[in-house]
Amino acid sequence: MKVITTLDDLRHARAALLGPVGLVPTMGYLHDGHLSLARRARAECASVAASIFVNPAQFSPSEDLVAYPRDLPRDLALLEAAGVDLVWTPTPEIVYPAGFQTWVTVEEVARPLEGAHRPGHFRGVATVVAKLFNAFQPQRAYFGQKDAQQAAVIRQMARDLDFPVEIVICPTVREHDGLAMSSRNAYLNTGQRAAAPVLFRALSTAAMVWTAGERDAEGLRLLMAEIIDAEPLARRQYVSVADPVTLQEMEGPVAHALLSMAVTIGRTRLIDNLVLGDD
Ligand code: AMP
């Protein structure tokens, strides 16, 4: 596995790869969710490339950029074991050199939910992913359903800017108690970790009630809110029943919807989601 820092070296190494090339963008501190993307890419592509870059542009000044967990040696060993051919680990100065001033802004689909609670977040995400697509020229790029709105924003960006890349969305990988794997789970202390499955419990209870015949969007939101609010360590930022494509909040009976939520436990912000109905 080649590990590369500069953009020039990346371009040379990329040119030597057999296609199709599958790209797995990450911020590192890898877990089985990230590795499921790498394994899927390995199974579907002649060459697999990954990036490890904690993207400052997607963190607001009040967020956890400095504290974000990092362990590059461990990440590289895991990617190598997953069969990755090429890893790019740029510095912030390589991605955003002095004088950088061009940003990619996706509009409607980036506005609600995470966009409303994390101003500027998706501008940072769309910009770095556009730069990764330019640098790697992948035929396929792999992202997790865990970040459902991010997937929608990237799909929209790739379509609008004519990137010739297939966006592949992989299922959310969970711990045994349902907690979605996340690098940020490392912030949780023992009591907080015990409380954290409340997100999945709320989502799966709503999905169960929907299967049993409750179709009202507001009824499902209220049920999820009630379950989160019953957990003393959890603070609800939002619960949502939204159109899976536009991400607009739904009203009345729902046949196909994205259930999603953001909850803080202590100072850790967790997100999760489930899709109701056929994709
Ligand atoms: P991150 O390092 O958090 O930026 O995540 C890198 C990629 O891994 C993104 O496409 C995420 O959606 C995906 N990912 C993160 N957690 C999970 C998970 N638990 N299951 C599946 N994909 C995930």
Short description:
The protein is an alpha/beta fold and 279 residues long. It has helices at residues 7-15, 32-44, 72-81, 92-95, 114-117, 121-136, 148-160, 190-195, 198-211, 217-229; strands spanning 2-4, 21-26, 47-52, 86-88, 140-144, 166-170, 234-242, 257-265, 268-276.
Cofactors, ions and other ligands in the entry: adenosine monophosphate
| Class inferred from helices and paired strands | alpha/beta
State the major sheet: 6 strands, parallel
Uncertain stretches of 5 or more adjacent residues? none
Cα shape: globular
Number of helices: 10
Strand order of the largest sheet: 1-4-3-2-5-6
Order of helices and strands: EHEHEHEHHHEHEHHHEEE
The strand count comes to 9
Terminal Cα span: 36 Å
What Rg, in angstroms, do the CA atoms define?
19 Å
Give the DSSP E fraction (strand runs of 2 or more residues): 15-25%
Can you put this structure into words, describing what you see?
The chain is built from ten helices and nine strands. The strands form two sheets. A six-stranded parallel β-sheet has the order 1-4-3-2-5-6, with helices on both faces. It starts with a strand and ends with a strand. The radius of gyration is 19 Å and the shape is globular. By secondary structure, the chain is α/β, with parallel strands linked by helices. Helix 6 crosses helix 7. Strand 2, helix 2 and strand 3 form a beta-alpha-beta unit. Bound molecules: adenosine monophosphate. The site of adenosine monophosphate has 17 residues, from helix 2 and strand 5.
